[in-house]
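Predict structure. Chain length: 347.
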Amino acid sequence: MTNSITRRAFAASAALAVAGIATPSLRAQSKLEKSKVSIAVGAKASLYYLPLTISDQLGYIKAEGLDVEISEFPSGARAQQSLVGGSADVVSGAYEHTIHLQLRNQLVRSFVLLGRAPQIAMGVSIKTMPSYKTVADLKGKRIGVSSLGSSTHVAAYLVLARAGLKASDVNFVGVGTAAGALTAMRSGQIDAMCNLDPVMTMLEQKGEVKIIGDARTLKGTAEVYGGAMPAACLYGQVDFIQKNPNTCQAMVNAIVHGLKWLQTAGPSDIIKTVPEAYMLGDRALYLASFNKVREAISLDGIMSDEGPRTALKALASFDASIKTEKIDLGQSYTNDFARRAKQKFRA
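Prediction complete.
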């Protein structure tokens, strides 16, 4: 009897020891190489960046030992410039920026995915185009996008291209992603707009636009892009990631923790957590926007194999200077950190 118990105890101890070796990520976190981190983000109030907001507001970032400064820029392109210029350590931005930067011999890498669909919608103004029937009607019209060369610009181009229109057939106008975008549409400065939520849901619910392209759902994303399309992520210089693996792991842990929270968050949870200023003065519409994009939010921070290929194909169709054979997609992202965080939080 005693020998049997001893053998069982030994076996259990051995199993725990093996588990400890096999899953070092579940043990106490190693010391951070850098506790103060600067993250650049374009239009952080949009739902596109909700996982970052949640992780920050709920204290998940601080719980990982990080002192993070989140700096807002008017667009993702400007946030990207701050990384290249050295004023930011990391960017919370669109995955496709990693491809653009690789073309410029800038080695950057996505290390956790925030969105598995772009959360972008395109709508035609009811005010300036009350007789709109098909996408072809947009020829010669003014199309608002968050900024030229942005993710919304690419999405608008793809919607137009499906209908046989070229970029030169319309006039693209940068209008931002918040109050400026609403003003541009409502004042008649533009005839259609491709933008993020909550702006697009607000215009949609007020009856001010007719939605003609919708990448706020997985199904709609496949229709616009031809497959799964990754959206927001955290990306940084490869050199920074390699020199600061524990710091990057801490950031990813915080994000994946936030992603897990979002899987079961209810309306009251969102209202209590998201800053009031992000809701554009209408809580009900903000919640409606959240419900529209909910499935677009990543579940666990892991990039799919298909996503980067879809992104490269979309960018190459938008920009003829992009040569797909010159891009090494394997260098543009890593799932190593997200897999460890997924295991830790069982996301």
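Summary: Strands lie at 36-42, 67-73, 90-94, 108-113, 120-125, 142-145, 171-174, 192-196, 209-215, 232-237.
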